[in-house]
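Most newcomers find our protein records easier to grasp once they have seen one. A record pairs a protein's sequence with a compact description of its fold. An example says more than a description, so a record of this kind follows:
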Amino acid sequence: MKTIKGPAIFLAQFASDEAPFNSFASICRWAADLGFKGVQVPSWDSRLIDLRLAAESLDYCDELNGVAAEQGVQITELSTHLQGQLVAVHPAYDEAFDGFAPPEVRGNPKARANWAADQLLLAAKASRNLGLSAHATFSGALAWPYIYPWPQRPAGLIETAFDELAKRWRPILDAFDNAGVDLCYEIHPGEDLHDGASFEMFLDRVEQHPRCNILFDPSHFVLQSIDYLAFMDIYRDRIKMVHVKDAEFNPNGRMGAYGGYQSWVERAGRFRSLGDGQVDFKGIFAKLAAMDFDGWAVLEWECCLKHPEVGAREGAAFIGDHIIQVTDRAFDDFADAGSDEAMNRKMLGIGG
């Protein structure tokens, strides 16, 4: 068995114009000082990385890896969550998501989708140049406005949406395959890939592509009332990345999963700092150890109550305490009496 690597931290929620969060070197040092061993880098944040340059220059990637090492961490993966979202956008969300794109393609859905696809192609090359084996992204969504079957969905609507989604992602998946990198979709509400059933619909349409994999984040399963431990058993061969994030779901007489249009503080389902929610992390880390997961345990901090720097500090220790140093021998080896084929046959009464 393999021991999970970590703790690591996703930098997206912490990068800002304030020191030490405004440069790659200083934010890496901050993370290392908290006890993190790895950093997951948001590729859209130019304060931390130049994605195009990383795709084109091995020297630049060597420099990035060197800066991380000098500060006491290593790069675990890149993320294109925001760009992946723009690969497929329903018109209802055009204006809301335009802010994720550069000014020159805003207001032009086709140009925006092409830009997003190009960003993913750059990310495949950049991940290869950095020596990474997995990449984090969102799938985007064409069918999400129709998640609830009222009004009645016309026949074939969802199938057409998933056919188009697969058409857009297939060349990107092929590019990641050429780069030797797993493309891991975060299973997340708001994306067409938001649970196991929708992931399977997509996987079928990309012909079980070997690079079509999962970023497992249990917090999104808590908020959907999905059995996340059972999910791990079903999709164990496709889980290539993990976000360690906590959540709680406390439905009441006024609201449930849909949240009543309330703020995050008032919703029945809320993201929480590690240890403050309801996720069974002991169960999750036990399954990761048993399934030989050899990736990184990456903190994604989101909490509607706690200060982010407190959540980061506590999160490093929390993950470190939950990573299972796997055994290199069976616990009952002391009682091993030895055996050979003749003894086995004799014990079974089948003789010579």
User: Anything to note?
Assistant: The mean pLDDT is 96. DSSP finds 13 helices and ten strands in the chain.
